[in-house]
Amino acid sequence: MSITKLWIVLALSAGVLAAHGQPGDTLTSSTPLSDNQTLTSAGGIFELGFFSPGNSSEWYLGIWYKEIPDQPIVWVANRDTPLNGSVRILNLTADGNLLLLNKDANILWSTNTSNATYPLLQLSDSGNLILTGGIPKSILWQSFDHPSDTFLPGMKIGLDFAAKLDRHLISWKSSSDPSPGNYSYGMDPHGVPEVYIWEGSSRTFRTGPWNGKGWSGRPDMWTNGVLRFHFVMNQHEVYYTFESLNKSVLCRAVIDESGVLQRLVWSTTSTRWDIFWLVPEDPCDQYATCGANGMCTTTYSPRCQCLQGFTPKSPKDWDLRENSDGCVRRTSLNCSTDGFFPLQKVKLPDTSNASTESNKTLNECRDLCLKNCSCLAYALNGESMCITWLSDLVDIRIFIDGGDDLYIRLADSELDSIRSNSGNKIRLAIAVTIPVLSSLLLLCVGLLLWLKRRRRNHGKVMSSHSIGSKESELELPLFDMRSIKAATNDFSVDKILGVGGFGPVYKGQLEDGREVAVKRLSKNSIQGIDEFKTEVLLIAKLQHRNLVRLLGCCIEDEERMLIYEYMQNTSLDAFIFDRRKSSLLNWQKRLDIIIGIARGLLYLHQDSRLRVIHRDLKASNILLDHEMNPKISDFGTARTFRAGQTEGNTKRVVGTCGYMSPEYAMGGLFSEKSDVFSFGVMLLEILSGKKNNVVLQADQRINLLGHAWMLWKQGRCLELLEESISHSYPVSEVFRCFQVGLLCVQEGSEDRPTMGEVVLMLSSESVMLPQPNRPGFYVTRTSIGEDCSPSEITITELEGR
Ligand SMILES: *[C@@H]1O[C@H](CO)[C@@H](O)[C@H](O)[C@H]1NC(C)=O
Ligand SMILES: *[C@@H]1O[C@H](CO)[C@@H](O)[C@H](O)[C@H]1NC(C)=O
Ligand SMILES: *[C@@H]1O[C@H](CO)[C@@H](O)[C@H](O)[C@H]1NC(C)=O
Ligand SMILES: *[C@@H]1O[C@H](CO)[C@@H](O)[C@H](O)[C@H]1NC(C)=O
Ligand SMILES: *[C@@H]1O[C@H](CO)[C@@H](O)[C@H](O)[C@H]1NC(C)=O
Ligand SMILES: *[C@@H]1O[C@H](CO)[C@@H](O)[C@H](O)[C@H]1NC(C)=O
Ligand SMILES: *[C@@H]1O[C@H](CO)[C@@H](O)[C@H](O)[C@H]1NC(C)=O
Ligand SMILES: *[C@@H]1O[C@H](CO)[C@@H](O)[C@H](O)[C@H]1NC(C)=O
Ligand SMILES: *[C@@H]1O[C@H](CO)[C@@H](O)[C@H](O)[C@H]1NC(C)=O
Ligand SMILES: *[C@@H]1O[C@H](CO)[C@@H](O)[C@H](O)[C@H]1NC(C)=O
Ligand SMILES: *[C@@H]1O[C@H](CO)[C@@H](O)[C@H](O)[C@H]1NC(C)=O
Ligand SMILES: *[C@@H]1O[C@H](CO)[C@@H](O)[C@H](O)[C@H]1NC(C)=O
Q1: How far does the centroid of ligand 9 lie from the alpha carbon of residue 287, in Å?
Q2: Cα(195)–Cα(495) distance, rounded to whole angstroms?
Q3: pLDDT per residue over 198-219, tens digit each?
Q4: Which residue spans traverse the membrane (predicted)?
């Protein structure tokens, strides 16, 4: 009887919804929500309803983006108690309790609220599900207080002391199982509040304390044109929140099942989620990777070093790059005579055991630390907050740009020896930096000349530079800021095509109708001015149908921008790694792309006026035009070689893990052959549709190269092919291509072919191919963090020891 009644109510309410045309955003106690019914927020952005992830037979109540493809889920109610039957009902009781019921009217989830009059459930356009009641109306419960794995603008991550709320994210178990996974993202209010990622109860990442501008550990995000972050601390609550500067741009942050927090921004132009930033991003983001009193840097190798005045606790392990034991003090302290060593541009150490005093100057902070014998370091956070550390300094990293200053307590004798050593150090530093500085100076002078001349003859600019020993001319149109602003709709957020390490890339349309891509160097970009100049100087001279064409640049005040031709089909990675798009690439198309890239690279290595090593070849740096012709892009890290030179060495290894050859990643040695290695990786990725830096066989930690090598040895090459090309292809061509790929990724650089040989091998059936040897780097070492330097090999560094 009551069941029939219920169905009548359901049918009636469905009728009401249908009559309105659109389901509303509000649920009252008289109209439950069932099965296929949904609530839609007033602006149509979010939808609440029942879903079943993947192909599972289990159902959940959740909120998702209504209009975005794949409708990403932002919140799940019954993570632990899925609905398994065919009947699903969300009922708001008359006294204000929200119940999730199955067929047998079992309560699977509820908000545990009660005692309210006139309850009302409403889905807002911010994605918050709000239960209100009473007169005057008050909030009984809201989904923003109980986040799942997604952090939305306006949501607070942190603690509300009075309401006893700890709002934090918890990852899904897997993409088809929303139950709580191993990772969480939340705030630890002890000492100075910081946001952490935890795996179970151990920390894997922290942001560093808030310093007024942003988190100490992410100086690259302190200013950006897309998102703004806020940190609030008072006696009632402490939290962190963010907003999108353009309210109509959708963004979210998600902690995924492997513990990576990604901040995603929806791009309406390219209809996809762009990764705005993610953590942990590099090995130094990994919590305490260098142990206590160690510091981490991504720009030198080895990346772990002891703080000044400290020495490895277990020197043997340390030499083997096993750093977790950390470092110990070389000379013990004597409270009355100690001093401080300033360490600049760092992510401040873990503050969970630190003490703070507000309203202090740097000198007052120093005195405070000096007077207290158990104080080991101090720093002034923001304008006036003095932080003092009383225990080991954990998880420090060094930045090239940005970061805070930390003052470390050291014994007087230790400071003396640093002072007397610094003479040598400076001389060493000069020896290393003079060549860099002088080339920078030359570039600067060049740019100045260039700017001067520009005033005289507007439009075209000419200037002379010397690179190596050759004199070369630079001829490049200079765009003015006004026309770039007009082209990109004043750098509108929705024109952003992607965001790289240097800053955002915008899509624009010039006054003459040409579509362009504008690469805007962000002011506090870590890859700085010199990469920009390298790119301008290099690419202006290079012209080839398989290289992206630079149309001009724009330099005004602090702004530096490069203007490229716009590539309609974005980049190669958007095709080969995307299940839907990859079917657009048949065998012939893929082979054409491979050969195109090979030709472009051959031009760089041998045929251009300068001999150029790209150093960062990867699928995302290959752009595709409207006819799917590949164009090599991103010359920010490229190097030129003089005639006769075949190899270079750098202590600053730049590039992308998974694409770097062993001799480059571990020894900083780069040559044409390190580009050939990256090309080989890319070739195998194009054939397989799989990324190299992902573990393919978890038990053996084998990556794509290892997988390809195994299949080759067993004569099962065709199994590597991406599914969508499994129909029409000439088998001999596939074998040949596969073999060339393996030849390119061989461990020994001298075994690898040159690009000239590669082009020949790919385009002629009659050339005999040698048998490949074992590839380099065919096991991945870490799943995240992507550490490229294996511990068995010690690098001889340029830096003196
Ligand atoms: C819900 O939708 C599915 C698919 O559209 C349909 O098969 C099912 O019958 C619907 N259920 C109800 C109760 O309308
Ligand atoms: C669901 O199952 C169908 C058919 O069994 C399959 O084609 C599809 O890929 C599956 N989807 C997911 C997300 O697993
Ligand atoms: C559905 O869930 C209920 C309660 O959680 C459980 O008792 C029942 O066995 C489940 N039925 C199926 C078919 O899994
Ligand atoms: C749903 O709520 C209404 C109003 O409070 C109540 O009459 C009805 O019995 C509830 N249904 C179930 C299945 O609990
Ligand atoms: C409601 O109370 C039950 C039992 O105490 C608890 O398991 C559940 O997590 C609570 N629900 C919410 C949304 O807090
Ligand atoms: C509901 O409200 C009444 C009156 O305000 C109060 O006496 C009662 O304890 C409340 N019950 C709950 C469960 O809060
Ligand atoms: C979570 O941790 C457990 C135990 O360490 C492990 O077995 C499981 O694979 C982990 N799950 C994920 C998704 O990493
Ligand atoms: C600390 O320094 C003072 C003054 O130089 C000296 O008298 C004292 O012996 C030192 N103490 C230790 C433990 O070295
Ligand atoms: C903070 O102190 C506790 C207890 O002494 C210790 O276990 C923990 O490692 C310390 N944390 C840091 C970051 O130093
Ligand atoms: C900070 O300290 C100065 C002097 O010590 C005092 O005049 C000022 O009022 C203080 N400000 C706050 C906000 O406490
Ligand atoms: C040093 O500072 C800490 C934290 O402020 C405090 O707990 C401790 O008592 C101080 N020690 C001395 C000797 O003043
Ligand atoms: C905000 O974004 C929307 C759509 O993405 C766009 O139409 C609008 O012009 C942008 N507003 C500003 C001020 O950039």
Answers
A1: 14
A2: 31
A3: 999 999 999 999 988 889 888 8
A4: 428-451
